[in-house]
Specification:
With 86 residues, the protein is α+β, with helices and mostly antiparallel strands. The chain has a domain of 48 residues: 2-Layer Sandwich (Alpha-Beta Plaits). The protein contains two helices and four strands; from the N terminus they run βαββαβ. The protein has a two-stranded antiparallel ribbon with strand order 1-4. It has a two-stranded antiparallel sheet with strand order 2-3. β2 and β3 form a beta hairpin. The longest helix has 5 residues.
Length: 86
């Protein structure tokens, strides 16, 4: 039986501009092209929907200026019935 693979998604990408030196490494390593540049060459989120939360941008940033907030799978736990049985 084949297992279903769940794609990871980013809930948000935070770019800390005060720490960023606009080197473009995060943009170059992004396989989903989720990052782009603003008019001054600083990275910006171009398309959050395409981000797979792979963390390549985070891992390669020499300034630690980028963070990915991942969506979590908040499935409710199974609860027992009123008698406490599961």
């Amino acid at each position: 039986m084949a297992e279903t693979l769940h794609k990871r998604k980013a809930k948000a990408i935070n770019i800390y501009r005060k720490a960023c030196k606009a080197c473009g490494i995060c943009i170059a390593f992004c396989p989903s092209k989720s990052l782009g540049t603003d008019e001054l060459g600083y990275p910006v989120v171009a398309n959050l929907d395409t981000c797979t939360a792979c963390n390549l941008c985070v891992d390669r940033c020499p300034d630690l200026a980028i963070e990915i907030i991942k969506e979590t799978d908040n499935k409710p736990e199974k609860k027992g019935d009123e008698d406490g049985k599961k």
